[in-house]
Design goal:
Elements lengths: L16 E5 L2 H4 L12 H8 L16 H15 L3 E5 L2 H4 L10 H16 L3 E7 L5 H4 L9 H16 L5 E6 L1 H9 L14 H28 L2 E7 L2 E4 L5 H23 L7 H13 L12 H7 L6 E4 L3 E6 L11 H5 L1 E4 L16 H14 L6 E5 L11 H19 L5 E7 L18 E3 L8 E3 L1 H12 L16
Parallel strand pairs: 1-2, 1-11, 2-3, 3-4, 4-5, 5-7, 6-8, 7-10, 10-11
Antiparallel strand pairs: 8-9, 12-13
Helix pairs in contact: 3-5, 7-9, 8-9, 14-15, 15-16
This protein binds ligand GBH.
Subunit structure: Homodimer.
Protein name: beta-glucosidase
GO molecular function: beta-glucosidase activity
């Protein structure tokens, strides 16, 4: 059997975790209500309306702060038993610091979690999905070592408030996207553009913040709250541009080490610390460029130990695959960057479908290969939980391409489990409903549900992909014939 017709020959294990993901700033709205403080996204987008494709921001979004019962209903309708969402740090702690807890914010999340649990949906709670409190961003955000302790203070408040009913936490979402786009370029807020410098400070302190929050939970809360806690990392897969060229195959490995291993190795490898390849490269390049010390900070022995094994599962976000080959960048640059450090050229395969965004082509086998790469390198001790996967289009309700994307990517996940022996225990679709997609504003549609942003109720309507996902969750198998496009040109 293949992945184009009939029922899949493999099925998902009975205890397989099916869920759906969202993030606070992308859905909540109510940016200044009930005592919430500003996040750096609020502040920056108010000051720079041109930053997003449609000049819009997350002030209202899907209005989930008021319409969370609608969200719970549609999560329930999908039949999934898990809902991954994030807490807005400044909604809970308006100044970012633990001396001032916003009671209305605290109550909002308490009610939301309780209502989910009432209908048998387990909340999976992310502490940091990029909405840094402005008050702390003013101190330099993650480029400031003190952020580690502020983050741990915040985590403590969250564990105390909700740990009695929340037993599934993630600390940080996609540190690579956050640090690279926000600190090493101007793609994301805070748009610091300190390429090659602040992006590694961000990586370093975000990793330490994660590790310290993990250790706090492990020693003070887990003994009686009995939950699990981990981190979510993101990775593109890479195919060598020319599979016959060793240098192209090497480029894939270099890229994965520099963009993914940088975060994964300190936590999930046997030895810990940054990958030796990355350490050596950053040290060498920094010296060559005339820096007095490496642009990549160093962990103390104690920090290496705190990081090692600091995740109960490997949270993995994956969307797409690029073709890779060595880049022609020469050393000797005055402004360093992750690109210069990596020296790998990314291109898109001209034939792979590209349903909605320039960066997202559809290549399902890349998912299986990534799951295997992670398993071989890091996944021997902890299970993998796919915390995001999905694609964007232009928002049509009959989203045949999304149906096909999910069917094919999920089939690759089944192959990874059943024929490759990867320990993949869960899968969360990105995302529940069309939302605020960062720089793309509302122009990129990733939802299983469509949202009518012009209606006062922000009406949520299931797309075909929602119905199809419900079918997969219920039957534990994929039916490649349901919701199949009447036109054969779809992916
Ligand atoms: C994830 O990021 C996020 O966790 C989630 O919040 C987000 O909404 C979702 O996926 C969809 O993007 O066009 O060159 O400027 C995925 C990382 C970040 C990858 C933005 C593409 C744009 C690159 N994405 N990035 S570019």
């Amino acid at each position: 059997l293949d992945d184009s017709s009939g029922w899949s020959n493999y099925s998902f294990p009975d205890d397989f975790i099916f869920g759906v993901s969202t993030a606070a700033y992308q859905i909540e709205g109510a940016w200044n209500e009930d005592g919430k403080g500003e996040s750096m996204w609020d502040t920056y987008l108010h000051e720079h309306p041109d930053f997003t494709a449609d000049r819009l921001n997350g002030d209202v979004a899907t209005d989930s702060y008021h319409r969370y019962m609608d969200d719970i209903q549609i999560v329930k309708d999908l039949g999934v038993k898990y809902y991954r969402l994030s807490i807005s740090w400044p909604r809970l702690l308006p100044n970012g610091t633990d001396n001032n807890v916003n009671n209305a914010g605290a109550k909002y999340y308490r009610t939301l979690f309780e209502e989910l649990i009432k209908v048998n949906i387990t909340p999976v709670v992310t502490l940091f999905h990029w909405d840094m409190p402005t008050a702390l961003m003013d101190l330099g955000g993650w480029s400031n070592p003190l952020m580690v302790d502020y983050f741990v203070d915040y985590a403590r408040v969250a564990f105390k408030l909700y740990g009695d009913i929340i037993n599934f936490w993630t600390t940080v979402n996609e540190p690579h996207q956050h640090c690279y786009n926000g600190y090493g370029s101007t793609i994301f807020v805070p748009a610091i553009n300190s390429s090659g410098v602040a992006e590694y400070l961000c990586s370093h302190y975000i990793l330490l913040g994660h590790a310290k929050a993990y250790r706090l939970y492990d020693t003070e809360f887990r003994p009686y709250q009995k939950g699990k806690i981990g981190i979510t990392l993101d990775a593109f897969w890479g195919e060598p541009k020319d599979a016959n060229k060793q240098e192209d195959r090497d480029a894939v490995e270099t890229y994965l080490q520099m963009h993914f291993g940088l975060y994964a190795h300190p936590i999930f490898s046997m030895e810990g610390d940054y990958p030796p390849f990355v350490r050596e490269r950053l040290d060498t390049y920094s010296e060559y460029e005339g820096f007095a010390r490496s642009r990549l900070p160093t962990f103390t022995e104690e920090e290496v130990k705190a990081l090692l094994g600091s995740s109960d599962f490997f949270g993995l976000n994956h969307y797409t695959t690029y073709l890779m080959s060595p880049s022609t960048m020469e050393p000797g640059w005055k402004v360093p960057s992750l690109e210069h450090d990596t020296r790998v050229k990314l291109e898109q395969h001209p034939k792979w479908p590209k349903p909605g965004a320039d960066w997202l082509t559809v290549y399902p086998p890349g998912f299986r290969k990534l799951l295997n790469w992670v398993t071989n390198k890091y996944g021997r001790n902890v299970p993998i939980i796919v915390t995001e996967n999905g694609m964007c289009d232009h928002g049509q309700i009959d989203d045949y391409e999304r149906v096909s994307y999910y069917n094919k990517y999920l089939y690759q996940l089944l192959l990874a489990i059943h024929t490759d022996g990867c320990k993949v225990e869960g899968y969360f679709a990105w995302t529940l409903m069309d939302d605020f997609e960062w720089t793309d504003g509302y122009t990129a549609k990733f939802g299983l549900y469509s949202v009518d942003f012009n209606s006062p109720n922000k009406t949520r309507t299931p797309k075909l992909s929602a119905k199809n996902y419900r079918g997969i969750v219920k039957s534990r198998r994929i039916n490649f014939d349901s919701f199949k496009s009447p036109i054969s040109t779809y992916l």
